[in-house]
Amino acid sequence: MAENRAWRLANPRHAAILARAGELRKYGLTPDSFIALAEAQGGLCAICGMKPEPIPFVDHDHQTGTVRGLLCRKCNTAIGLLRDDPDLLAKALRYLLHDR
Fold first, then answer.
1. Region 2-97: CATH code
2. What is the pTM for the complete model shown?
3. Domain boundaries in the chain?
């Protein structure tokens, strides 16, 4: 038990990934495939390019279940609040650019 705790403290990112193994299975990912996807993205959010803390969220198409990539909490929340709707996202972009 103390050995496991010491390992988790020494390896917090990997421990967080292993703790989410059940969640990853929903998306057809293993901890190893999740790590490979994160490495393919350079360890950064696929939208904003920032390093997600503690680990990224799996973004997926809600219609097909296909994994699109890994996102930070803010980007994942943003596209979720926009209902994963490209038209709504385009309207938000036009709104933001309106005064520029």
1. 3.40.1800.10
2. 0.84
3. 2-97
